[in-house]
Amino acid sequence: MPIDHTRKEFERTTAGNGGQRVQLRLFVAGMGPRSTQAVSDVQRLCARYGEHCQVEIVDIYEQPAMAAREQIAAVPTLVRVQPLPLRRVIGAIGNIDRVASNFGIRVNRTAGTR
Fold it and tell me: Span 31-46, mean pLDDT?
């Protein structure tokens, strides 16, 4: 049993981002069509890379101070908060594989690709 536990630990550590969590923040404006599409795209991103992603969705109408502090000029904007450095994708994020690549997120090897 300890060997099996060690193997699972090893696979988890070497899969995808080496076990490193990626913290994302999606800024949207209300729940109009563009915001709804961005949320849907982030849900697809999480479905594929979910083991490594933690997402916070921020409505700039409800939290304008946070949007100002983060210097959000356009929505939707997806920000990689952790690990540093910050990275942003402004506008459509429909190509989740490209977004993941730009943010340094890899598919979990144990989950495979879809």
Answer: 94
